[in-house]
């Protein structure tokens, strides 16, 4: 079965979402959908509302208008505004534009925090390290190690994150997001500030995640080469409005998109 | 080694023996998911049996070749043994070779079966598939990324082993018979030599050759099943194969496969190998790391390190060699061991190392002595793919930085009048695969292998390798002139980056020197010596003085070696530009093209031999963007003191 054949039905649908901060209209009646197993990119010039869109999906911002529909365990759930705890519980994980790791903790510990929601043992059990806590810890450690292996960061397992170069921190952040075993992964500029080689590595990891874990991915990216290469479909935002939606080829030919990026003579 | 291994003349028979005698002891460890996973000898034998049956089902048979492409992984070694069980010949290939380089061995040996470690290696094999029509079965170990591969040639290792276990249950006798059919004189493995000139050659080694040499060296060093080795160099290289396949199969020791190439240092610290091999460049990189970290340490630590390393330099080597050392020096060294050497060995992962080898290229004496001075028994050995590695090994207590030691028991050595080293040993290769002419050129009718290396015996009977035979010349008076040997001696000084010596057919030796811009630049800065650039720096009298001192030391060394005492360096000049591959003065692997340099700078060579005190030079240089320019300079020429061979002891 090829990659394209694996892409299934819609799992997330954003309908007529509008978000404003006072007089600033960050998003205006944006609608788009995400299908299972696909890599969906959101692009647009600076200030187009890309990060706001992600923040709406995982419940950091609450839109004034519109609905988000998410399919979880075969049933559709409808939200007016998502709660970020609920988003995490429903299998949405994300990374941030400016890395949000625990700098003083090791890579392994950071990845383990990604397992937090899966831990069932009570505070007391964990404190005295008995029964369930011990069993769980072993199980989670194994899961974390599998992700460390997957992301090829074994050599820095015990290194505090603050001492790592930027490109590796980005990789650790993706590892932590993966540790939550998400069904939907939101990546906010995973390749920003990387050199060519790091970008190539990151592209490979994003595709591998999509491939190996079957994770659905929504990503924001500025590097057009990357976007066109790895995404199945692209949404284009400009000044909070959707101006294009389709396969990379469609979007590349879309006049509104070209105008937004290159500007038009008035 | 008290156990009786007679009659066990192939690797599969040795494996079954270990599975019987020490089935529960570890054979291979591999760090996986952060934990060291152990394969005991018993488990390894089970896996090999199943795999062999599955391979037989897929048509691998006696005399076939099987390619193995991958890093050090238990499964790569299991496949190697499985192929040998069936009388097939494993051909390990370098895992970092590009696809095109893999095509030749596969075509040459008409390989049908290949084991690839992961997607990367599978991709390479699939790429050359159209050029290699014989290749029918590709087995991959790591399933990651392989989901959408539908090629009919591909099978996963896990599927294969599962099928093999079923086959083994149906017909357990089949494999026993196959293993019994194996003989010591059968080919055990084939290694392709890198082939710097022309196409690579497949070196065929028999079970007997590999087992004999592995055993001879193991007996020499007293290796047994308590030893531990870290397998971190490419398995396609004969050395790694000896240390991580042949020797463990002979002695029953355990090899450890690191988690990834980046974790080798950490894994080594965790494992604490007792038997270790590293080429000089690895040892140098480790020392550089230590030096850099020491410079960042606090003043107290730096002071301690300096003081105790001075003591180590004085007495460390002597203690290791069992030479007499005063009680006071012993006490000082003991303190140093407590405070500096012990912790340092621990950081390097060498706390438990009993025997460490280095080989492959000349090792700088300072580098070599550093490791010995902190109590690591680093020794040199000499050998090649064609000789199953072990030809010469330095015995404990007789270690020198510039020889490779006497012959290992079983090896006969002699030098031709042209100084070429000839070897006769039970470890010699059978032939170059499908290349009888090359075989005949390398191995003569009496069984002597012509190494192409030039050297001689030093007064203690140790072999000293100085150069390749084709590069060795003679001075006008008939003295041996080994340019690379002299140049290496010069290059071991940190201030000298490159040297070119001349002397073939001349009455004395002269040299071009390239200073190391960075090292000499630092040296100048510390002396508050202003300079405008490389050309200026290279022409300074102070720098000439610095280089002259280095060369005098080399001359003093040479005076103690009667064979080549006359090839001391009489005159030198410092070149105004760095020798560069872009100007065709170096090869791409950074070896000096001596002939080309001599021709290009003929006026300089004439000036050296003409006795002039300086010479004007204009040279074309090629910039990286392809433009050319000229550099002109007046180069000074200086004489160097030489030492009389018999007076050398006093002078030095």
In short:
With 266 residues, chain A is α/β, with parallel strands linked by helices.
Protein described:
The complex is a heterodimer of chains A (266) and B (652). Chain A is an alpha/beta fold. Chain A has helices spanning 3-6, 50-57, 84-89, 107-113, 123-128, 131-150, 166-179, 196-212, 224-230, 248-253, 255-262; strands at 10-21, 24-35, 39-43, 65-72, 75-79, 92-95, 184-188, 216-220, 233-238, 241-246. Chain A has a domain at 3-91 and 182-262: 3-Layer(aba) Sandwich (Rossmann fold), CATH 3.40.50. Chain A is globular, with a radius of gyration of 19 Å. In chain A, 38% of the residues are buried. With 652 residues, chain B is of the alpha/beta class. Among the domains of chain B are: 11-208, 3-Layer(aba) Sandwich (Rossmann fold), CATH 3.40.50; 472-651, 2-Layer Sandwich (GMP Synthetase, Chain A, domain 3). Chain B has 22 helices and 27 strands. Chain A binds chain B through residues 1-3, 108, 141-142, 145-146, 148-150, 152, 154-155, 157, 208, 211-212, and chain B through 32-35, 144-145, 147-148, 259-260, 262-263, 266.
Describe the largest sheet of chain A: 6 strands, mixed
Physical arrangement of strands within the biggest beta sheet of chain A:
6-7-8-3-9-10
The secondary structure category of chain B is: alpha/beta
- Sketch the major β-sheet of chain B: 5 strands, parallel
Radius of gyration of chain B: 27 Å
Contiguous runs where pLDDT drops below 50 for at least 5 residues of chain B: 647-652
SS field, number of helical segments of chain B:
22
Amino-to-carboxy terminus distance of chain B: 45 Å
How many runs of DSSP E, i.e. beta strands of chain A?
10
CATH architecture of the domain at 11-208 in chain B: 3-Layer(aba) Sandwich
Assembly annotation? heterodimer
Helix/sheet category of chain A: alpha/beta
């Amino acid at each position: 079965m090829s990659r394209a054949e694996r892409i299934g039905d819609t799992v997330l649908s954003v309908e007529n979402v509008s978000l404003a901060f006072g007089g600033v209209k960050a998003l205006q009646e944006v609608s788009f959908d995400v299908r299972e197993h696909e890599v969906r990119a959101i692009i647009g010039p600076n200030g187009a509302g890309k990060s706001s869109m992600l923040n709406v999906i995982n419940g950091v911002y609450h839109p004034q208008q519109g609905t988000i529909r998410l399919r979880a365990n075969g049933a559709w759930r409808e939200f007016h505004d998502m709660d970020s705890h609920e988003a995490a519980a429903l299998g949405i994980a994300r990374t941030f534009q400016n890395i949000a790791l625990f700098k003083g903790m090791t890579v392994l510990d950071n990845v383990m925090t990604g397992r937090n929601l899966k831990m069932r043992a009570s505070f007391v059990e964990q404190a005295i390290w008995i029964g369930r806590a011990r069993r769980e810890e072993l199980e989670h450690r194994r899961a974390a190690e599998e992700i460390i292996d997957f992301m090829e960061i074994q050599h820095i397992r015990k290194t505090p994150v603050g001492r790592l170069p930027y490109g590796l921190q980005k990789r650790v952040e993706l590892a932590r997001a993966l540790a939550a075993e998400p069904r939907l992964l939101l990546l906010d500029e995973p390749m920003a500030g990387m050199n060519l080689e790091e970008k190539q590595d990151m592209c490979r990891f994003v595709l591998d995640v999509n491939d190996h874990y079957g994770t659905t991915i929504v990503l924001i990216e500025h590097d057009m080469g990357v976007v066109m290469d790895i995404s199945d479909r692209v949404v284009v935002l400009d000044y909070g409005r959707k101006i294009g939606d389709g396969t990379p080829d469609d979007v590349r030919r879309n006049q509104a998109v070209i105008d937004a990026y290159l500007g038009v003579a008035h | 080694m008290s156990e009786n291994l007679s009659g066990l003349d192939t690797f599969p028979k040795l494996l079954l023996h270990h599975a019987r005698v020490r089935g529960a002891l570890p054979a291979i460890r591999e760090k996986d998911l952060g934990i060291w996973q152990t394969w005991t000898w018993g488990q390894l034998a089970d896996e090999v049996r199943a795999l062999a049956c599955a391979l037989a089902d897929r048509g691998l048979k006696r005399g076939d070749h099987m390619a193995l492409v991958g890093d050090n992984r238990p499964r790569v070694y299991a496949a190697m043994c499985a192929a040998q069980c069936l009388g097939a010949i494993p051909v390990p290939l370098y895992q970092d070779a590009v696809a095109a380089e893999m095509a030749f061995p596969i075509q040459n040996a008409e390989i049908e079966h290949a084991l690839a470690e992961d997607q990367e290696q599978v991709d390479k094999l699939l790429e050359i598939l159209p050029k290699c029509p014989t290749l029918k079965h590709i087995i991959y170990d790591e399933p990651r990324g392989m989901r959408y591969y539908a090629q009919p040639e591909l099978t996963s290792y896990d599927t294969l082993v599962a099928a093999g276990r079923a086959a083994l249950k149906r017909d357990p006798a089949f494999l026993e018979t196959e293993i019994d059919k194996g003989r010591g004189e059968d080919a055990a493995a084939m290694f392709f030599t890198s082939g710097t000139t022309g196409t690579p050659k497949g070196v065929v080694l028999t079970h007997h050759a590999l087992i004999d040499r592995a055993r001879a060296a193991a007996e020499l060093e007293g290796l047994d099943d308590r030893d531990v080795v870290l397998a971190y160099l490419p398995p396609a290289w004969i050395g790694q194969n000896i240390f991580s396949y042949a020797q463990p199969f002979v002695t029953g020791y355990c090899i450890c496969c690191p988690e990834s190439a980046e974790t080798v240092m950490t894994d080594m610290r965790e494992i604490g190998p007792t038997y270790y091999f590293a080429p000089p460049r690895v040892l140098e990189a480790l020392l550089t790391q230590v030096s850099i970290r020491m410079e960042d340490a606090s003043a107290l630590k730096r002071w301690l390190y300096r003081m105790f390393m001075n003591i180590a330099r004085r007495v460390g080597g002597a203690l290791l060699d069992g030479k007499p050392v005063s009680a006071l020096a012993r006490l000082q060294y003991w303190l140093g061991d407590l405070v500096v050497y012990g912790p340092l060995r621990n950081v390097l992962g060498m706390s438990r190392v009993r025997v460490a080898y280095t080989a492959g290229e000349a090792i700088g004496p300072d580098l070599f002595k550093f490791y010995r001075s902190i109590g690591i028994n680093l020794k040199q050995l000499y050998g090649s793919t064609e000789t199953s590695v072990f030809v010469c090994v330095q015995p404990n207590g007789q270690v020198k930085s510039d020889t490779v030691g006497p012959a290992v028991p079983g090896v006969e050595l002699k030098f031709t009048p042209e100084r070429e080293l000839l070897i006769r040993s039970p470890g010699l290769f059978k032939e170059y695969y499908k290349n009888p002419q090359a075989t005949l050129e390398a191995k003569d009718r009496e069984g002597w292998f012509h190494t192409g290396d030039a050297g001689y015996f030093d007064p203690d009977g140790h072999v000293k390798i100085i150069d390749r035979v084709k590069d060795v010349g003679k001075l006008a008076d008939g003295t041996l002139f080994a340019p690379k040997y002299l140049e290496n001696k010069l290059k071991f000084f940190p201030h000298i980056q490159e040297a070119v010596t001349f002397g073939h057919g001349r009455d004395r030796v002269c040299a071009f020197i390239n200073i190391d811009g960075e090292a000499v630049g630092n040296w100048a800065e510390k002396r508050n010596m202003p300079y405008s650039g490389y050309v200026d720096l290279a022409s300074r009298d102070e720098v000439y003085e610095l280089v002259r001192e280095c060369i005098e030391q080399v001359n003093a060394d040479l005076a103690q070696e009667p064979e080549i005492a006359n090839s001391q360096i009489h005159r030198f000049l410092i070149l105004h530009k760095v020798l560069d591959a872009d100007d065709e003065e170096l090869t791409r692997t950074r070896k000096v093209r001596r002939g080309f340099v001599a021709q290009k700078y003929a006026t300089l060579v004439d000036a050296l031999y003409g006795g002039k005190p300086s010479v004007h030079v204009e040279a074309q240089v090629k910039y990286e963007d392809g433009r050319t320019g000229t550099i002109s300079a007046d180069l000074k020429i200086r004489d160097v003191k030489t030492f009389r061979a018999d007076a050398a002891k006093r002078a030095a």
